[in-house]
Task: inverse folding
């Protein structure tokens, strides 16, 4: 199943509750980039499960953005869901949620060692002028 087919199935399943975009900046040469498997998928799934679904509205949006700055590759997954604090309050099993993110962090640490390269994970939120949550942004940053 192609990546596009996966997004289409998600869109069919969640109808208008999930909107998405995949953006690869024009000057990013993806032909030579090897992204380690199972790094992006769990982040997108977390955005949908913990951010978008609790919204229960048609305004849910997930964006996958890939771009280069200098000799670094940025893979950004962002959503306009309920935000990290609210998602933690909503979680019925916070221990399970922390294991999921902890596994991603451990995988990145191991890949950094195996590939002898620097891979970082950045998690942040943005808020509007009124203090309302706008975006949860998770970025994987790795050397090219």
Result:
């Amino acid at each position: 199943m192609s990546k596009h087919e996966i997004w289409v199935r998600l869109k069919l399943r969640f109808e208008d509750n999930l909107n998405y975009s995949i953006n690869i900046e024009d000057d990013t040469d993806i032909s030579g980039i090897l992204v380690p498997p199972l790094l992006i998928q769990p982040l997108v799934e977390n955005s949908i499960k913990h951010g978008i679904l609790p919204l229960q509205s048609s305004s849910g949006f997930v964006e996958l953005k890939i771009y280069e700055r200098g000799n670094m590759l940025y893979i950004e997954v962002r959503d306009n869901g309920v935000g990290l604090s609210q998602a933690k309050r909503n979680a019925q099993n916070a221990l399970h949620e922390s294991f999921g993110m902890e596994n991603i962090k451990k995988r990145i640490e191991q890949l950094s060692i195996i590939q002898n390269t620097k891979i970082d994970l950045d998690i942040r939120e943005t808020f509007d002028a009124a203090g309302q949550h706008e975006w949860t942004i998770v970025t994987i940053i790795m050397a090219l």
